[in-house]
Design a protein that fits this description.
This protein has 232 residues and is an alpha+beta fold. The chain has two domains: 112 residues, Dna Ligase, domain 1 (2-Layer Sandwich); 112 residues, ATP-grasp fold, B domain (D-amino Acid Aminotransferase, Chain A, domain 1). The strands form two sheets. Strands 5, 6, 7, 8, 9 and 10 form a six-stranded antiparallel β-sheet that branches. Strands 1-4-2-3 form a four-stranded antiparallel β-sheet, with helices on one face. α3 crosses α4 and α6 packs across α8. The radius of gyration is 18 Å and the shape is globular. 35% of the residues are buried. The chain binds adenosine-5'-diphosphate and magnesium ion (MG).
Protein backbone atom coordinates (compact mmCIF):
# COMPACT_ATOMS: atom_id res chain seq x y z
CA UNK A 1 0.00 0.00 0.00
CA UNK A 2 1.50 3.32 -1.02
CA UNK A 3 1.73 6.45 1.12
CA UNK A 4 -1.12 8.72 0.10
CA UNK A 5 -3.32 5.73 -0.65
CA UNK A 6 -3.12 4.37 2.89
CA UNK A 7 -3.61 7.85 4.33
CA UNK A 8 -6.75 8.46 2.26
CA UNK A 9 -8.18 5.05 3.09
CA UNK A 10 -7.60 5.41 6.83
CA UNK A 11 -9.09 8.92 6.86
CA UNK A 12 -12.21 7.67 5.06
CA UNK A 13 -12.46 4.80 7.52
CA UNK A 14 -12.15 7.05 10.55
CA UNK A 15 -14.99 9.17 9.13
CA UNK A 16 -17.08 6.03 8.36
CA UNK A 17 -17.09 6.89 4.67
CA UNK A 18 -17.15 3.92 2.32
CA UNK A 19 -17.26 5.80 -0.96
CA UNK A 20 -14.16 7.89 -1.59
CA UNK A 21 -14.46 11.38 -3.07
CA UNK A 22 -13.42 11.82 -6.70
CA UNK A 23 -10.31 13.79 -5.70
CA UNK A 24 -9.31 11.04 -3.26
CA UNK A 25 -9.86 8.29 -5.84
CA UNK A 26 -7.81 10.25 -8.39
CA UNK A 27 -4.89 10.74 -5.99
CA UNK A 28 -4.84 6.97 -5.44
CA UNK A 29 -4.96 6.36 -9.21
CA UNK A 30 -2.03 8.75 -9.71
CA UNK A 31 -0.01 6.92 -7.10
CA UNK A 32 -0.46 3.73 -9.12
CA UNK A 33 0.65 5.35 -12.38
CA UNK A 34 -2.85 5.88 -13.78
CA UNK A 35 -3.12 9.21 -15.66
CA UNK A 36 -5.97 11.43 -14.43
CA UNK A 37 -7.16 14.93 -15.34
CA UNK A 38 -5.46 17.83 -13.58
CA UNK A 39 -7.66 18.81 -10.65
CA UNK A 40 -7.82 20.77 -7.40
CA UNK A 41 -10.45 21.17 -4.71
CA UNK A 42 -11.97 24.65 -4.33
CA UNK A 43 -13.79 25.46 -1.11
CA UNK A 44 -15.02 28.88 -2.21
CA UNK A 45 -15.98 30.61 -5.43
CA UNK A 46 -12.81 32.73 -5.25
CA UNK A 47 -10.68 29.62 -4.96
CA UNK A 48 -12.41 28.05 -7.95
CA UNK A 49 -11.52 31.12 -10.03
CA UNK A 50 -7.86 31.10 -8.97
CA UNK A 51 -7.57 27.36 -9.67
CA UNK A 52 -9.25 27.74 -13.08
CA UNK A 53 -6.65 30.36 -14.00
CA UNK A 54 -3.88 28.05 -12.96
CA UNK A 55 -5.23 24.98 -14.77
CA UNK A 56 -6.22 26.99 -17.85
CA UNK A 57 -9.61 27.36 -19.54
CA UNK A 58 -11.81 25.58 -20.44
CA UNK A 59 -12.41 23.84 -17.12
CA UNK A 60 -14.96 21.51 -15.55
CA UNK A 61 -16.55 21.99 -12.12
CA UNK A 62 -17.93 19.06 -10.10
CA UNK A 63 -19.57 18.78 -6.71
CA UNK A 64 -17.49 17.24 -3.92
CA UNK A 65 -19.78 15.72 -1.32
CA UNK A 66 -19.64 12.45 0.63
CA UNK A 67 -23.43 12.26 0.15
CA UNK A 68 -23.42 12.53 -3.66
CA UNK A 69 -21.94 9.60 -5.60
CA UNK A 70 -23.61 10.20 -8.97
CA UNK A 71 -22.64 13.78 -9.53
CA UNK A 72 -24.48 14.47 -12.84
CA UNK A 73 -27.80 13.22 -11.41
CA UNK A 74 -27.65 15.95 -8.78
CA UNK A 75 -26.85 18.72 -11.28
CA UNK A 76 -23.34 18.71 -9.86
CA UNK A 77 -21.28 18.67 -13.08
CA UNK A 78 -20.72 21.70 -15.35
CA UNK A 79 -18.55 21.20 -18.44
CA UNK A 80 -16.56 23.40 -20.81
CA UNK A 81 -16.43 26.60 -18.74
CA UNK A 82 -14.49 29.08 -20.84
CA UNK A 83 -14.35 32.29 -18.79
CA UNK A 84 -14.18 33.47 -15.16
CA UNK A 85 -17.82 34.56 -15.42
CA UNK A 86 -18.86 31.06 -16.52
CA UNK A 87 -16.91 29.49 -13.64
CA UNK A 88 -18.51 31.84 -11.14
CA UNK A 89 -22.02 31.07 -12.42
CA UNK A 90 -21.34 27.34 -12.52
CA UNK A 91 -20.03 27.35 -8.95
CA UNK A 92 -23.27 28.85 -7.59
CA UNK A 93 -25.50 26.74 -9.84
CA UNK A 94 -23.83 23.52 -8.70
CA UNK A 95 -24.25 24.39 -5.02
CA UNK A 96 -27.93 25.32 -5.58
CA UNK A 97 -28.66 22.20 -7.64
CA UNK A 98 -27.13 19.90 -5.06
CA UNK A 99 -28.95 21.57 -2.16
CA UNK A 100 -32.21 21.14 -4.06
CA UNK A 101 -31.37 17.50 -4.83
CA UNK A 102 -30.50 16.66 -1.21
CA UNK A 103 -30.97 19.39 1.37
CA UNK A 104 -28.90 17.48 3.92
CA UNK A 105 -25.93 16.82 1.63
CA UNK A 106 -22.64 17.90 3.20
CA UNK A 107 -20.85 20.00 0.58
CA UNK A 108 -17.05 20.08 0.86
CA UNK A 109 -16.50 22.22 -2.20
CA UNK A 110 -16.13 21.93 -5.93
CA UNK A 111 -13.50 20.03 -7.88
CA UNK A 112 -12.01 22.18 -10.63
CA UNK A 113 -10.41 20.18 -13.43
CA UNK A 114 -9.10 20.53 -16.94
CA UNK A 115 -11.72 19.95 -19.66
CA UNK A 116 -10.22 17.19 -21.81
CA UNK A 117 -10.86 16.78 -25.54
CA UNK A 118 -13.38 14.15 -26.59
CA UNK A 119 -12.09 10.88 -28.04
CA UNK A 120 -12.82 7.15 -27.68
CA UNK A 121 -14.20 6.31 -24.23
CA UNK A 122 -13.39 3.11 -22.36
CA UNK A 123 -14.16 1.92 -18.86
CA UNK A 124 -12.12 -0.13 -16.45
CA UNK A 125 -13.71 -1.65 -13.37
CA UNK A 126 -12.42 -3.59 -10.41
CA UNK A 127 -14.49 -5.68 -8.03
CA UNK A 128 -14.03 -8.29 -5.38
CA UNK A 129 -15.86 -11.40 -6.42
CA UNK A 130 -16.87 -13.59 -3.46
CA UNK A 131 -15.52 -16.65 -5.27
CA UNK A 132 -12.63 -15.41 -7.43
CA UNK A 133 -11.43 -12.42 -5.45
CA UNK A 134 -10.17 -9.27 -7.18
CA UNK A 135 -11.47 -9.18 -10.74
CA UNK A 136 -10.91 -6.64 -13.53
CA UNK A 137 -13.43 -5.55 -16.15
CA UNK A 138 -12.75 -3.77 -19.44
CA UNK A 139 -15.02 -2.39 -22.16
CA UNK A 140 -15.76 0.57 -24.38
CA UNK A 141 -17.87 3.30 -22.74
CA UNK A 142 -21.43 4.40 -23.40
CA UNK A 143 -23.85 2.12 -25.26
CA UNK A 144 -21.24 -0.62 -25.55
CA UNK A 145 -21.48 -1.23 -21.82
CA UNK A 146 -25.03 -0.09 -21.06
CA UNK A 147 -26.91 -1.71 -23.95
CA UNK A 148 -24.61 -4.21 -25.61
CA UNK A 149 -22.87 -5.44 -22.41
CA UNK A 150 -19.71 -5.73 -24.50
CA UNK A 151 -17.32 -6.18 -21.58
CA UNK A 152 -14.74 -8.73 -20.55
CA UNK A 153 -13.37 -9.94 -17.19
CA UNK A 154 -10.15 -11.41 -15.79
CA UNK A 155 -9.21 -12.52 -12.32
CA UNK A 156 -6.37 -10.38 -10.89
CA UNK A 157 -3.42 -10.16 -10.91
CA UNK A 158 -3.78 -9.53 -14.65
CA UNK A 159 -0.65 -10.18 -16.74
CA UNK A 160 0.39 -8.11 -19.75
CA UNK A 161 -0.72 -10.90 -22.06
CA UNK A 162 -4.11 -11.15 -20.36
CA UNK A 163 -4.58 -7.38 -20.58
CA UNK A 164 -3.86 -7.55 -24.31
CA UNK A 165 -6.38 -10.37 -24.67
CA UNK A 166 -9.03 -8.37 -22.83
CA UNK A 167 -8.63 -5.51 -25.28
CA UNK A 168 -8.69 -7.62 -28.43
CA UNK A 169 -11.55 -9.91 -27.40
CA UNK A 170 -14.30 -7.31 -26.97
CA UNK A 171 -16.61 -6.99 -30.00
CA UNK A 172 -15.88 -3.28 -30.31
CA UNK A 173 -12.11 -3.88 -30.71
CA UNK A 174 -12.17 -2.72 -34.39
CA UNK A 175 -13.18 0.74 -33.10
CA UNK A 176 -10.01 0.86 -30.99
CA UNK A 177 -7.90 -0.13 -33.98
CA UNK A 178 -9.27 2.86 -35.89
CA UNK A 179 -12.35 3.14 -38.02
CA UNK A 180 -13.37 5.74 -40.67
CA UNK A 181 -13.00 9.12 -38.92
CA UNK A 182 -11.91 7.55 -35.64
CA UNK A 183 -8.12 7.47 -35.32
CA UNK A 184 -6.57 4.38 -33.68
CA UNK A 185 -6.41 4.38 -29.88
CA UNK A 186 -3.20 3.96 -27.89
CA UNK A 187 -3.52 0.24 -27.07
CA UNK A 188 -0.25 0.16 -25.08
CA UNK A 189 -1.57 2.81 -22.72
CA UNK A 190 -4.76 0.78 -22.16
CA UNK A 191 -2.63 -2.31 -21.38
CA UNK A 192 -0.75 -0.31 -18.72
CA UNK A 193 -4.01 1.07 -17.38
CA UNK A 194 -5.42 -2.44 -16.85
CA UNK A 195 -2.20 -3.71 -15.24
CA UNK A 196 -1.91 -0.68 -12.94
CA UNK A 197 -5.55 -1.02 -11.90
CA UNK A 198 -4.95 -4.70 -11.19
CA UNK A 199 -1.98 -3.78 -8.96
CA UNK A 200 -4.06 -1.16 -7.18
CA UNK A 201 -6.79 -3.70 -6.43
CA UNK A 202 -4.35 -6.44 -5.33
CA UNK A 203 -2.36 -4.18 -3.00
CA UNK A 204 -5.47 -2.73 -1.38
CA UNK A 205 -7.81 -5.63 -0.63
CA UNK A 206 -9.95 -3.22 1.40
CA UNK A 207 -11.21 -1.84 -1.94
CA UNK A 208 -14.47 -3.55 -2.80
CA UNK A 209 -15.23 -1.75 -6.03
CA UNK A 210 -13.45 0.60 -8.39
CA UNK A 211 -14.86 2.39 -11.41
CA UNK A 212 -12.86 4.38 -13.96
CA UNK A 213 -15.67 5.72 -16.11
CA UNK A 214 -15.06 7.28 -18.49
CA UNK A 215 -11.41 6.99 -19.51
CA UNK A 216 -10.70 9.03 -22.66
CA UNK A 217 -8.20 7.35 -24.98
CA UNK A 218 -6.18 9.25 -27.58
CA UNK A 219 -3.80 8.24 -30.35
CA UNK A 220 -1.16 8.83 -27.71
CA UNK A 221 -2.01 8.36 -24.06
CA UNK A 222 -5.25 8.43 -22.13
CA UNK A 223 -6.87 10.24 -19.23
CA UNK A 224 -9.23 9.12 -16.47
CA UNK A 225 -12.02 11.68 -16.23
CA UNK A 226 -14.05 10.15 -13.39
CA UNK A 227 -12.95 7.69 -10.71
CA UNK A 228 -14.98 6.02 -7.98
CA UNK A 229 -13.67 3.76 -5.24
CA UNK A 230 -15.82 1.93 -2.69
CA UNK A 231 -14.32 0.37 0.43
CA UNK A 232 -15.48 -2.79 2.12
P1 LIG B 1 -20.82 11.23 -12.63
O1 LIG B 1 -20.49 9.93 -13.30
O2 LIG B 1 -20.61 11.18 -11.15
O3 LIG B 1 -22.18 11.74 -12.97
P2 LIG B 1 -18.58 12.37 -14.19
O4 LIG B 1 -17.41 12.90 -13.48
O5 LIG B 1 -18.43 11.06 -14.85
O6 LIG B 1 -19.81 12.37 -13.15
O7 LIG B 1 -19.03 13.46 -15.25
C1 LIG B 1 -20.12 13.23 -16.12
C2 LIG B 1 -19.67 13.29 -17.57
O8 LIG B 1 -19.10 14.55 -17.87
C3 LIG B 1 -18.58 12.28 -17.93
O9 LIG B 1 -19.12 11.04 -18.27
C4 LIG B 1 -17.87 12.95 -19.10
O10 LIG B 1 -18.58 12.72 -20.31
C5 LIG B 1 -17.99 14.43 -18.76
N1 LIG B 1 -16.77 14.92 -18.09
C6 LIG B 1 -16.51 14.85 -16.76
N2 LIG B 1 -15.31 15.38 -16.45
C7 LIG B 1 -14.78 15.81 -17.61
C8 LIG B 1 -13.53 16.44 -17.96
N3 LIG B 1 -12.60 16.74 -17.04
N4 LIG B 1 -13.32 16.74 -19.28
C9 LIG B 1 -14.25 16.43 -20.21
N5 LIG B 1 -15.44 15.84 -19.95
C10 LIG B 1 -15.71 15.51 -18.67
MG1 LIG C 1 -18.82 9.08 -14.25
Amino acid sequence: MLNKTSEIISTAYSESRKTLLENEAKIICSEYGIPVTKFKLARTCEESLAISQKIGFPVVLKIVSPDISHKSDSGGVMLNLKTEKEVENAFHRIINNVKKYDKNAKILGVLVQEMVNPSTEVIVGGLKDPQFGQTLMFGLGGIFVEILKDVTFRVAPVTKQEAEEMITEIKAYPLLKGYRNNPPSDIESIVSLIINTSNLMMENPIIKELDLNPVIVYERGLKVVDARIILE
